[in-house]
Write a structure and sequence with these properties.
Layout: H1 13-44, H2 47-58, H3 60-72, H4 77-101, H5 106-135, H6 140-169, H7 171-191, H8 206-219, H9 221-236, H10 240-251, H11 256-279, H12 285-301, H13 308-336, H14 342-355, H15 357-371, H16 373-399
Length: 406
């Protein structure tokens, strides 16, 4: 029996297997994200040093994502994803072993965060490009929305579980369970029939492939607009791994369990936003830009959060707006790009989405260290609003109304 319209991408066996493995693995990833942030704050008590860890974790995306995208168009994608997921699993086990040994220090976390970043830099564009081969072009928007729903379901479950686990048994168990969770996605990939073989077109030097992808993004107006908006929102607004722990600890004076609940509220809102995207049609530019405005405004509003339950409500709304924005960006770019350039263009997407996170983490961490978390929320929200409204204003006169489909 076929799946209903809102779940139509699940009719593809490969995508169904991959999505199930991803759900288990991502719960572990979110557990580690919360555990790592809490562990750094326990070790150092420094908002800036927490920002440095996030910068090290996502910094490699700035330097290696574009060549990684060119590589994604040259190698079998399934095999490459299995290699990167194995590397991420070993990183999680290393963190757990260090914590259990009682010898873990800040520099250990920093080095392992950087190694995580290198593996994730290779993994992300390959995995994004592989989705279309498992679900097909016709069901790609639905596949992206369902993938977002799974990602954020894990965000809802993982942090809450991590908070309880850390409070009772310590951070090491969160790292260990994350390592074990990678077995689910590795087994799913082993059962997938799609190989993600390279496009049969001619291949030049790697540098020529990189240049071709850059030219395409520069010369395609819709892709250029989406990447520009995504850059500013990623820099100023999507800094949850740094800002939510600071909100919990500095403003709301909560422990690990409270942090887990706040992160789960963010994930709950994101799941609802992703499901709305799955049942909707292809995103429009107006929806994309409107979600960017909403996410910025809600970030600005969190500068005034002083109580736990209003903060949870604000984070739930923020999660919904962020996921509608990100899924719309992903779908818009993937709908435009030709297959032979998909890995390279998605590496640019990864660069803008994840690669600027180190800059944003350092900026928000430094602002919070100097002026407090509310000031950092205010700067991020106001800056995001200004950027989105300016880019929308610049687009409209020359490219037509924002109501047209992407």
């Amino acid at each position: 029996m076929p799946y209903p319209h809102g779940l139509r991408a699940l009719n593809h066996r490969d995508f169904r297997l991959f999505l199930g493995g991803q759900l288990v693995s991502l719960v572990g990833t979110w557990m580690q994200s919360v555990a790592q942030a809490w562990f750094v704050l326990e070790l150092t008590g420094s908002a800036f040093k927490l920002g440095v860890i996030s910068a090290l974790q996502f910094g490699p995306m700035l330097f290696f994502s574009i060549p990684a995208g060119a590589l994604a168009d040259r190698v079998p994608k399934r095999r490459m994803i299995m290699a990167t997921q194995t590397a991420l699993m070993l990183q999680a086990f290393a963190l757990a072993a260090l914590c259990w040994s009682g010898r873990a220090s800040y520099w250990h976390v920093a080095v392992l965060a950087a190694l995580y970043g290198v593996a994730n830099t290779v993994d992300m564009p390959v995995r994004q490009a592989f989705v279309v081969e498992m679900a097909g072009k016709e069901d790609l928007p639905n596949a992206i929305a369902l993938n977002s729903a799974v990602f954020n379901s894990a965000r809802m479950i993982g942090p809450a579980a991590a908070g309880l686990l850390i409070a009772r048994f310590g951070v090491a168990w969160a790292f260990a369970l994350n390592g074990l969770s990678f077995l689910a996605v590795l087994l799913a990939l082993a059962a997938v029939s799609a190989q993600g073989l390279p496009h049969p077109g001619a291949r030049g030097h790697l540098a020529e492939d990189v240049a071709e992808g850059l030219r395409y993004a520069r010369d395609t107006p819709v892709v250029r607009l989406v990447l520009s908006v995504l850059f500013f929102i990623s820099l100023l607004v999507i800094n949850n791994n740094v800002m939510v722990p600071l909100l919990a600890r500095q403003v709301l004076h909560e422990g690990a369990q409270g942090l887990g609940l706040l992160m789960s509220a963010l994930g709950t809102g994101a799941v609802l936003g992703a499901l709305a995207m799955a049942w909707g049609g292809r995103p429009r530019l107006r929806v994309l830009l409107g979600a960017g405005v909403a996410a910025s405004a809600l970030t600005l509003a969190l500068a005034e959060a002083g109580r736990f339950w209003p903060a949870m409500a604000g984070l739930a709304l923020l999660g919904a707006s962020q996921i509608v924005f990100m899924a719309s960006c992903n779908t818009t770019v993937q709908a435009e790009v030709p297959d032979r350039l998909r890995g390279r263009v998605m590496s640019l997407y990864a660069l803008v989405f994840v690669g600027v996170a180190p800059l944003g983490s350092l900026l928000m961490g430094a602002l919070a260290q100097a002026f407090g978390a509310p000031a950092a929320y205010a700067v991020g929200g106001a800056g995001g609003l200004l950027a989105v409204l300016t880019l929308a204003w610049a687009w409209a006169p020359s490219r037509g109304p924002l109501t047209s489909p992407t």
